[in-house]
Amino acid sequence: DAKTTQPPSMDCAEGRAANLPCNHSTISGNEYVYWYRQIHSQGPQYIIHGLKNNETNEMASLIITEDRKSSTLILPHATLRDTAVYYCIVSRAPSFSSGSARQLTFGSGTQLTVLP
Amino acid sequence: EPEVTQTPSHQVTQMGQEVILRCVPISNHLYFYWYRQILGQKVEFLVSFYNNEISEKSEIFDDQFSVERPDGSNFTLKIRSTKLEDSAMYFCASRDFHNEQFFGPGTRLTVL
Question: How far is A35 from A80, CA to CA, in rounded Å?
Answer without folding.
Answer: 19
